[in-house]
């Protein structure tokens, strides 16, 4: 199986080993020169790390236990003296002085090794100390000016070697970081959605800079920076919820985003600007903006436990990567926007195709109520909504009444009194002008009163008629946090050009649920088709109704009676039939003429309609004969209705002034009940006719009513 390392990683490792071996040879050669030119019996070199700790790097002619003793008890004091005397070329420790207060362990070591001279030589380049050369003599050695110069020069060679090593390491580190940035940027460029890009950034950023945690902040719809991805352990919590990483007030990410500048925090424990900590002790932070052009797309934050863990090179590397990451985020957002627009166009095409299908269904429906139900059931395929209400306007009084709703009143999201008042207020405005309106992000307070309506609508509406606001208008009134906002489309419904009602669509949820311009246009197109269908249906009903009614009295005619009677028989529920005939009508007609007779029949028809129950139906059977179908009525109930009808007819005729005050027109009534008096409509009519015939023969009876059974 092949080595999992890539060729570049193997090359990097080889260069590192070669460089270390070459540097070690140089150190050995310098220490050999120290022994030769300074007549020394041993030498060692300690390099100084960025945190000022000393690390043994090379030695000659000294056993390990001697070097360990020097490391513990000699190098630290020598370093302190060098820092106090930065210009001194040599710090000597005269071990042959019995009064020298050196540590007992060092005294034992020097006595065992017969070391009588110990000197420290600072390894310096201009402006910086990079290490310490320690020279050992086992016999007294007087340091001359020549020796001091030689020692300083040899120490300078060690310092130069360390400076070159650091420079080489910095260059190699930068090259490795640039290669890592290039590779990571290629990976980000292949990703297509912003969440995946964010997760990849925080997961892979450790390849560029050492970090314990990483988090990425991006601006939300309100422009507030919020964490979108994080990795690492924060105050003991592994991968806490992103919401926990947010802090109110001015934060470091917001500060960086506002200024579009990177920021290094040596120790976050002393930072007053709030940010979620990842350790309980000192913590170093590095923040860089993710900038694309002049616009900040986000802020990347990395942290390490301890103070002063990040330098300018870390900042530069992360800033370079930040620009690639910002471009990847912008590309992903652009792709997402294109996909969203493509999906929206497909939805729009689908909605338009669906509108054509719905229009065919609506136009073929001839029942006005069914048209309204189809509108409610199918508009959601074109424009989604949370609530729908269809209002009708009474042409006589102008009153507005909701006649259909989805969801139904009482259901979740159905009509409430408050919501109805909001609907009615805007509906009244629309019906008065006959223009469709789209009102986004409005509140119940905004449209609460009719007198304030016009002022409230200023700047809030997108409309189709004169005076409507522009397409990008939104509510100019601020809303309280607990105030529910709604988005409403109100489109008038017309029959023969006259506004008869409106179609109201509502979505709840503020700007995120706002109706688009296309949805508004689709709503208007749908309402136009619905209006045409409603007009056709109502025209059909008008024609059908005229065919079903008696032209003189307005009661249902004989043909309608036969149809309705058959329907009741087929339904199988109990009902009664009253057949009614006017007494002395022929004599009245002969005396006062046919116009008076027609007026009398109209008066009788009105009396019948006022005397029967709500679910009963009255018919003009023919001539001066009438029929009444009493749904659910037994023979006893029919008798009560018959008595009420006879009284109403008598009083209506007497009070009408038709003919003369002596006009004595009364009604005879025959009754038959189903199924007691006949199993089918023919036998039932025959039974009622027979009962009427019998009562007509009872000329002298005061009660002009007979039941068939």
What's this entry about, in short?
The chain has 709 residues and is α+β, with helices and mostly antiparallel strands.
Q: What secondary-structure arrangement, pairings included, does this model have?
A:
Elements lengths: L6 H31 L4 E7 L5 E7 L3 H10 L1 H10 L6 E4 L9 H10 L3 E9 L2 E10 L7 H46 L3 H11 L8 E7 L5 E7 L1 E2 L2 E2 L13 H8 L3 E3 L17 E10 L2 E11 L6 H52 L4 H11 L8 E7 L6 E7 L10 H17 L3 E7 L9 H5 L3 E3 L21 E11 L2 E11 L8 H32 L9 H14 L3 E9 L1 H8 L1 H18 L5 E6 L2 E7 L3 H22 L9 E9 L6 H17 L7 E3 L2
Parallel strand pairs: 22-23
Antiparallel strand pairs: 1-2, 1-5, 3-4, 4-5, 6-7, 6-12, 8-9, 10-11, 11-12, 13-14, 13-18, 15-16, 15-17, 17-18, 19-21, 19-22, 20-21
Helix pairs in contact: 1-5, 2-4, 5-8, 6-8, 8-12, 9-12, 14-15, 15-16
Percent in strands: 15-25%
**By helix and strand content, what is the structural category?**
alpha+beta
Radius of gyration: 51 Å
Q: State the strand order across the main sheet.
A: 14-13-18-17-15-16
Q: Count of DSSP helices?
A: 17
Unreliable stretches: 1-14, 410-420, 445-460, 465-482
Overall mean pLDDT score? Answer: 79
Shape: rod-shaped
């Amino acid at each position: 199986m092949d080595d999992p390392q890539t060729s570049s990683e193997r090359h990097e490792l080889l260069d590192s080993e070669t460089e270390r071996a070459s540097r070690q040879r140089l150190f050995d050669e310098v220490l050999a020169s120290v022994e030769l030119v300074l007549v020394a019996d041993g030498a060692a070199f300690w390099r100084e790390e960025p945190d000022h700790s000393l690390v043994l790097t090379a030695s000659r002619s000294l056993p390990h236990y001697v070097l360990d003793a020097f490391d513990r008890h000699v190098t630290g004091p020598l370093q302190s003296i060098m820092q106090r005397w930065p210009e001194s070329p040599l710090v000597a420790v005269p071990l042959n002085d019995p009064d020298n207060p050196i540590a007992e362990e060092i005294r034992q070591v020097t006595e065992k090794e017969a070391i009588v001279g110990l000197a420290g030589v600072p390894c310096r380049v201009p402006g910086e100390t990079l290490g310490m050369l320690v020279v050992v003599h086992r016999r007294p050695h007087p340091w001359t000016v020549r020796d001091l110069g030689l020692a300083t020069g040899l120490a300078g060679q060690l310092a130069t070697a360390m400076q070159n090593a650091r420079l080489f390491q910095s260059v190699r580190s930068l090259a490795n970081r640039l290669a890592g940035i290039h590779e990571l940027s290629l990976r980000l460029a292949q990703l297509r959605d912003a969440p995946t890009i964010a997760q990849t950034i925080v997961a892979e950023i450790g390849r560029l800079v050492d970090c314990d945690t990483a988090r990425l902040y991006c601006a939300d719809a309100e422009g507030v920076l919020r964490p979108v991805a994080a990795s690492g352990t924060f105050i003991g919590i592994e991968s806490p919820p992103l919401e926990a990483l947010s802090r109110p007030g001015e934060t470091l990410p917001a500060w960086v985003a506002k200024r579009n500048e990177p920021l290094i925090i040596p120790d976050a424990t002393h930072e007053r600007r709030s940010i979620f900590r990842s350790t309980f002790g000192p913590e170093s932070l590095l923040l860089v903006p993710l900038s694309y052009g002049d616009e900040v797309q986000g802020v990347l934050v990395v942290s390490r436990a301890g103070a002063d863990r990040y330098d300018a090179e870390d900042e530069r590397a992360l800033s370079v990567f930040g620009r690639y990451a910002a471009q990847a985020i912008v590309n992903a957002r652009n792709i997402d926007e294109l996909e969203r627009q493509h999906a929206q166009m497909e939805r729009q095409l689908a909605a338009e195709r669906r509108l054509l299908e719905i229009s065919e269904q609506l136009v073929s429906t001839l029942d006005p109520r069914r048209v309204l139900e189809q509108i409610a059931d199918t508009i959601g395929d074109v424009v989604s909504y949370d609530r729908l209400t269809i209002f009708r306007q009474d042409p006589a009084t102008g009153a507005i009444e909701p006649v259909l709703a989805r969801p139904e009143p009482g259901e979740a999201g159905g009509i409430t009194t408050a919501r109805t008042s909001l609907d009615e207020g805007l509906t009244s405005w629309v019906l008065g002008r006959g223009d469709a309106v789209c009102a986004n992000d409005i509140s119940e307070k905004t449209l609460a009163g009719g007198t304030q309506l016009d002022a409230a609508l200023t700047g809030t509406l997108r409309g189709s008629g004169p005076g409507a606001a522009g397409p990008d208008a939104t509510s100019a009134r601020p809303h309280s946090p607990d105030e529910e906002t709604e988005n409403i489309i109100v489109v008038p419904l017309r029959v023969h050009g006259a506004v008869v009602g409106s179609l109201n669509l509502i979505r709840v949820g503020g700007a995120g649920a706002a109706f688009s311009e296309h949805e508004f246009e689709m709503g208007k197109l749908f309402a136009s088709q619905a209006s045409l269908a409603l007009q056709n249906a109502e025209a059909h009903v008008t024609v059908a109704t005229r065919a079903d009614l008696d032209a003189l009295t307005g009661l249902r005619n004989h043909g309608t009676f036969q149809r309705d009677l058959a329907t009741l028989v087929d339904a199988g529920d109990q009902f009664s039939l009253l057949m009614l005939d006017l007494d002395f009508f022929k004599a009245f007609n002969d005396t006062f003429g046919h116009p008076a007779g027609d007026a009398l029949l109209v008066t009788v028809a009105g009396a019948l309609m006022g005397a029967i129950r709500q679910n009963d139906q009255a018919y003009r059977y023919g001539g001066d004969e009438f029929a009444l179908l009493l749904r659910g009525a037994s023979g006893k109930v029919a008798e009560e209705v018959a008595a009420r009808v006879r009284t109403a007819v008598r009083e209506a005729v007497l009070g009408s002034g038709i003919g003369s005050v002596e006009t004595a027109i009364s009604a005879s009534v025959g009754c038959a009940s189903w199924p007691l008096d006949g199993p089918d409509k023919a036998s039932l009519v025959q039974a009622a006719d027979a009962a009427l015939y019998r009562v007509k023969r009872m000329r002298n009876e005061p009660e002009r009513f007979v039941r068939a059974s």
